[in-house]
Please model this.
Amino acid sequence: MSLRPDEPILAPSLLSADFARLADALTLLETAGGCIVHVDVMDGRFVPNITLGMPVVASIRKATVLPLDCHLMIVEPLRYATDFVKAGADWVSIHQEADPHLHRTLSAIRQVGGKAGVVLNPGTPVETLVDLVGDFDFVLLMSVNPGFGGQSFIPRVFDKVKRLDALRTERGVPFLIEVDGGVGMKNAGDLVRAGADCLVAGNAVFKAEDPRQAVAGLLSEMNQGRKA
Ligand code: DX5
Ligand code: ZN
Model:
């Protein structure tokens, strides 16, 4: 039996959109179909950049029916993770490198009704999660060093996707695999082929000449990867 969702999911990252026109970006994603909304939360401490917090997530929540996928690039995630669920996030992911008490934070997210995810930086092995399988709903593998959009894809993530896919099959636990950073038309099909279920794309969507067409193109690549 397959543990993967029926269709791969695209998670366009608002980080590359125009922050003064977020409502337009959300409408575009709703009409394009196949998307959830990736929201990058950065604190200027875990990563060298600052973006947005709970009030903005609450406003985004009111402006769309799409699921919100909040990627927390913050220190001490336990302090804020449940607030993001209360602000309207459906998926909340926390960095393994930022939290010595992952089990506690993942449980807290689930307790308030969120889907709980763990994020791994490029240098963090997937094997650090073997004793938490069943305690998270998804794993987000970074294919760039977090902090900025528009960086180059680090291909070593392919091997991590395959190892995680093998781990969930071996354990029979249906967590999702998401990949974030430098994703585009060149690698989307291959990432799904390797075992990814959900791909984040910032620049490849919102810096494209025609973002709607970019979403359609990426989803088509992903679906072909799935069928292969
Ligand atoms: C980077 C963020 C990403 C970023 C991806 O720290 O986590 O979600 O927005 O942007 P692209 O797709 O342009 O690499
Ligand atoms: Zn992200």
